[in-house]
Specification:
Layout: H1 10-21, H2 25-37, E1 44-45, E2 48-49, H3 50-56, H4 61-73, H5 75-84
Antiparallel strand pairs: 1-2
Length: about 90
């Protein structure tokens, strides 16, 4: 799986790839398992799960992993933003 396969515009590919590389190790491990085996992660951070982000916000899978990572790094800020509906 590449970001190109996720229909990311060219201008976002490098920036998104950098964010994926810097993900929290637990989130990154779940991401890699998803890439390798298409296993849906069961991780929940601050009450937010991959499924909730994908279903409620219609996030692309990579965006949901990045949101979970944001929740580990800046839980208060990320939770507030997600509750307001920011993708």
């Amino acid at each position: 799986m590449t970001l190109c396969a996720q229909d990311y515009p060219d201008y976002m590919l490098e920036q998104t790839a950098d964010k994926v590389e810097r993900m929290d190790e637990r989130i990154k491990a779940a991401f890699e398992e998803w890439v390798d085996s298409n296993v849906i992660p069961t991780i929940e951070i601050e009450g937010w799960s991959y499924n909730k982000l994908v279903e409620k916000f219609k996030m692309r899978p990579v965006a949901a992993f990045l949101a979970l990572d944001w929740l580990t790094r800046e839980p208060e800020k990320a939770s507030k933003a997600l509750k307001r509906g920011i993708r």
